[in-house]
Hints:
The chain is mainly alpha-helical. The protein has four helices and no strands. Helix 1 (about 10-20) packs antiparallel against helix 2 and helix 3 packs antiparallel against helix 4 (about 90-110). The protein is elongated, with a radius of gyration of 26 Å.
Amino acid sequence: MHLLDVTDYKLLCWWDVICEAVPLGFRAYFLLNMLKDLACAVFGARAVHSMKSLIGFDGIKAAIDTLSLKQRELEDHCLELHALLLAEGASASGAKCMVKAARSSHDAYTLWS
């Protein structure tokens, strides 16, 4: 059985069975917690499934991946700049300030260009 095969009706039936077992002396509270986790997983899987059916989802995912890559590249450049400044004799705090200024000017440049 897959997550998308679990219906609301099945979840409610399982909930009722567990709730009826508790007053009879069964220690099934952990099952209620597991069922809550299962319900969250089911609704999450449904949300992902419905998002994939939207037009343009692949384009949005590609844009997110591209932005993530660019962000990692920028962070790598900042680390390289920091190391270069330290190698040139800048203090740690001075290098940190210069990297922050470079990052801010890059952000401003990309914002206005």
